[in-house]
Amino acid sequence: MNVSYQPLWKILEDKKMKKKDLIEIANISENCVANMGNNKYISMANISRICEALGCTPNDVFRFCASDER
């Protein structure tokens, strides 16, 4: 099973935010955002920071998908 952060990118798009804005408000690193851009796993601490900053839940940030889908 793979992870996809497409739900998070949709939230940012809807809020007219850039990844740079997310880095600042969620206090996460550029490396963390780069890992999400490559659909790599990130820590629950970072997921928690993102959820707190955006007022959402982990289900709003990522989803699990089959290995052939992104």
Automatic annotation (TrEMBL):
- InterPro entries assigned to the protein according to its UniProt record, in alphabetical order: Cro/C1-type_HTH (IPR001387), Lambda_DNA-bd_dom_sf (IPR010982)
The superkingdom of the source organism is: Bacteria
Task: Name the Gene Ontology molecular function terms of this record.
Answer: DNA binding
All residue ranges annotated as the HTH cro/C1-type domain in the record: 8-64
> Pfam families, per this entry?
HTH_26
Record-given protein name: HTH cro/C1-type domain-containing protein
Naturally occurring in which organism (per UniProt)? Johnsonella ignava ATCC 51276
